[in-house]
Amino acid sequence: MGPTGQTPAIVFIPGFMQPGDAWAPVAERLGERYPSHPGEERRPIADRPSTAPFVLLDHREHTYEGRLREIAEVGEGAVLCGYSLGGRLALRAALADPDRYAGLVAVGATAGIEAPGQRAIRAEADQKLAAWVETQPIDQVVAVWERQPLFADQSDALVEAQRPGRLAQDPRGLALLLRTAGQGALEPVWEQLHSLAPPLLALAGSLDERYAAAAERMAAAAPRGRAEIVESAGHAPHLQQPDAVARLLADFLDNDLGQSGL
Q1: Is residue 40 part of a domain?
Q2: Are residues 46 and 132 in the same domain?
Q3: Domain co-membership, 157 together with 195
Q4: By CB neighbour count within 10 A (0-12 exposed, 13-18 middle, 19+ buried), where does 4 fall?
Q5: C-beta neighbour count of 141 within 10 angstroms
Q6: 262: in domain
Q7: Count of other CB atoms within 10 angstroms of residue 37
Q8: d(CA 132, CA 136)
Q9: Is residue 7 part of a domain?
Q10: Residues 131 and 47 grouped into a single domain
Q11: Same domain, 56 and 158
Q12: Would the pTM count as exceeding 0.85?
């Protein structure tokens, strides 16, 4: 339970080049449990109404440490629910301060690149990408980002629906985020998962084989972890199959956090 015995809030943490409302398709399906309260998104959880609203976190900071601070500011007593980069941040936030959070949901995320050589290659690639991004107009950055093979299983309509949120990003902030929170910049935390205190739900799409394997491994390593694979979804199951993800999240709240009947 959250502070003062209320149902834990959920803090939805977006991925790279996403606004907080990228999580809206899932959050809206939890509306009866978590009615939204406009303007509440940056108040400490303990100061919020007993209905424990969900939070669609819009980041203002564009460094690793800055984003961890933002998560800590709004997330005390909450379930952290992050996608891709947001999942990596949520995982590290929970490992750094396990008593602060009620639970953790990581979607399309991994605990890091273990091999030093592979991590160095990824870090170099991220540095080159960051140097290019900060010199380009945002529409060019978005056009290149959308053509990644990782998103090839997303429909044209889904890609178009995400475009306004991507176009609202600042290339300089994106470059800074790549340099400080990219997969090459972060040390892996696989060996720390055995000490993860909050319950963990690791989700991935069935078409996203590498991240599905990572979800299974993360769940097996965490003391209170479980993995769920979302059928007919790729790297963004919360966007491709929001009904399924909302059901899994509700089940996690009911069974893993003991919130049955809410």
Answers
A1: yes
A2: no
A3: no
A4: exposed
A5: 22
A6: no
A7: 15
A8: 7
A9: yes
A10: no
A11: no
A12: yes
Give the CA radius of gyration of the chain: 17
Listed residue (65, 129, 106, 62) closest to 196, CA to CA: 106
Residue 53 has pLDDT above 60, yes or no: yes
Residue 261 lies in a domain: no
Q: What are 131's two structure tokens?
A: 């140097």
Give the type of residue at 136. Answer: Q
Domain count, the chain: 2
Average pLDDT over residues 148-154: 92
CB contact at 8 A, 104 and 91 = yes
Q: 113: which 2 tokens?
A: 């690149």
Of 138, 108, 95, the closest CA to residue 23 belongs to: 108
**Separation in Å, CA 179 to CA 169, 173, 212:** 16, 10, 26
Domain span at residue 232 reads 3-113+188-256
Structure tokens at 11: 């803090």
CA distances to 44, 85, 86, 155, 156 from 76, rounded to whole Å, are 7, 20, 17, 36, 38
- Which pLDDT score is estimated for 247? 95
Structure tokens at 180: 């400080």
Same domain for 107 and 205, yes or no, is: yes
Element (H, E) at 12: strand 10-13
- Quick: pLDDT tens for 54-93: 899 999 999 999 999 999 999 999 999 999 999 999 999 9
Chosen domain end from 181, 206, 223:
181
Name the domain boundary from 141, 160, 181. Answer: 181
Q: Report the distance separating Cα 9 and Cα 3, nearest Å.
A: 10
Identify any residues that bridge with 228 across adjacent strands, giving them in sequence order: 203
139 shares a domain with 9: no
CA dist 31 → 27, 80, 212, 262 (Å): 6, 17, 28, 12
Would you place residue 8 in the very low, low, confident or very high pLDDT band (cuts 50, 70, 90)?
low
> 93 and 215 share a domain?
yes
